[in-house]
Amino acid sequence: MWRRAFGQAHGFRRVRRDWISQPDGQRSSAISTAVLMRSKAEANGKENKETIEVTFVTKEGDRKTIRVPVGMSMLEAAHENDIELEGACEGSLACSTCHVIVKDEKFYRMLKEPSDEENDMLDLAFGLTETSRLGCQVIAKPELNGMELALPAATRNFAVDGHVPKPH
Known about the structure:
With 168 residues, this protein is of the alpha+beta class. 14% of the residues lie in helices and 30% in strands. It is built from 4 helices and 8 strands. The chain has helices at 40-43, 74-80, 105-110, 116-122, and strands at 2-6, 12-21, 27-36, 51-57, 63-69, 99-102, 132-134, 147-150. A hairpin with a 5-residue loop joins strand 1 and strand 2 (12-21). The longest helix is centred in the middle third of the chain and has 7 residues, at 74-80. The N and C termini lie far apart (53 Å).
């Protein structure tokens, strides 16, 4: 029997009761869970079949073109397509590890203006450029079809890179 309950990160948590046979012949139950991640667009009831084409250029120069559903962030799209875009804070605007560089200024101008919070995080990004954005804040829309995003040569993840904050 499967039961569904709304979980964190716009996903569903599935709970299943399994019966396990014990050595003495008795049966006991165990509960197993799995988290199913869904895009924010799907979780908000805006499941959309329309997709756009986006090309990611890795730090090695390799190109990977993927289809991205309208309404999905580039961070989510990268994760779903095995593109190495870190996203340490899972899109909560608390890091700069999903930093991407929009290759064509035409596409950069089509994006919504970055918020103050995004600009604060971009200030921490490695290899910042005039067309830098956080992948978690770049949301697919039809006019971005054909956009290219370059991944910087490195990221700064203070939690992993050994940064120890000093007390005030």
